[in-house]
Amino acid sequence: RGSLCAAPSSEAELSPTQGSAGAQLQPVSGVLGGSVLLSPVLSHSFEVKTAEWYFRGGTGKTIQVAEFGPKGFERPDPHDRFKQRLEMPNATALRIGGLELGDSGIYVVRIKYHSTVEVEDQDFNLSVYDPVPPPLIQTQLLSRSPQGCNVTLRCSLPPTTLAWTSWHLDNTSGTLQGHSGDGQTLFLAIPPDALDATYTCVARSPAEEQSSSVSLRALCQLEGGRQRWAICLGVLAAIAGPLSILCCLRRRRRKADEGGGDLNGDPKKGCGVPRAGGGVPPSDPLRTIYSEVGAGKHSLAQPQA
Ligand SMILES: *[C@@H]1O[C@H](CO)[C@@H](O)[C@H](O)[C@H]1NC(C)=O
Ligand SMILES: *[C@@H]1O[C@H](CO)[C@@H](O)[C@H](O)[C@H]1NC(C)=O
Ligand SMILES: *[C@@H]1O[C@H](CO)[C@@H](O)[C@H](O)[C@H]1NC(C)=O
């Protein structure tokens, strides 16, 4: 590679980008169906006269695919493999849309300037990759105690995916113990002060990356949440029981005082038998308890009125 006519060394020093951009194939990655921009770095500030783009694919045959000249953007063969997928946003850069796997190959741009006979070539090596799907995280809560929580996290991709996965830890607020794994599966022993961590699995191809995350707090508190819920129900039941008895006794006393008629106009709202309050189906224990508590408060307030 290199310019067809080597640039004087003084000019090479003036434009340090020329060396890196021009001395070798510039690798470019694209995703199937996406687009890429091949944009040469110009070594001169002269006005560009023409820019010709060439493609050499798997067959090894080189074809000219585009040109920007006095007549603007032109396609020497509009029926080649690129059809309507090429455009030149300016005199030198080439954009390829609707990328296909067969677009992988070497692209060369040959630039001619108005004020110099120098011709400049720049080469790009385009590789088109399949899209990367978001990785799948499977979690398993092994054990949980006030001393922490043991979990395994597994990150996977569909078997045919050409991508690499890795685990990343954000927001560490504690030290992790027993952190091991094969890159896909992690075994974690998490102390309570490290629950705020979020583990992210990143799947990466040369062209793109996708990630999925899991929150340790959500994972480790799944069971704790259920326990707390049960305790909550128990406490409510413990309060509701005595209250309803109290309510019952007061109603009975009130009935005796007033010679019958319940103030609420519901003679059944008296004592004894456990019942579903206020027409709430008995299948819903929480709402039943609430309505009992409510009824109790109501009756307790009555004598002060
Ligand atoms: C041509 O257009 C591309 C994309 O807009 C841009 O990155 C590049 O710098 C432009 N080149 C010149 C010489 O203007
Ligand atoms: C272009 O890049 C691909 C992928 O990195 C590589 O396998 C191939 O060898 C490169 N081609 C050349 C000519 O360097
Ligand atoms: C987690 O696993 C380690 C090692 O097997 C064990 O010593 C620890 O007690 C476990 N922690 C919990 C909370 O179960």
From TrEMBL:
Pfam families, sorted: V-set
Naturally occurring in which organism (per UniProt): Anas platyrhynchos platyrhynchos (Northern mallard)
Entry keywords, A to Z: Glycoprotein, Membrane, Signal, Transmembrane, Transmembrane helix
Gene3D superfamilies in the cross-refs: Immunoglobulins
Superkingdom per UniProt: Eukaryota
First-listed, main subcellular location of the protein, grouped into a coarse class: membrane
Subcellular location: Membrane
Residue ranges of domain Ig-like in the record: 134-215
Residue numbers spanned by region Disordered: 1-21, 257-288
Family annotation (SMART domains): IG
InterPro entries membership: CD2/SLAM_rcpt, Ig-like_dom, Ig-like_dom_sf, Ig-like_fold, Ig_sub, Ig_V-set
The protein's name: Ig-like domain-containing protein
Membrane-spanning residues: 228-249
GO terms for cellular component: membrane
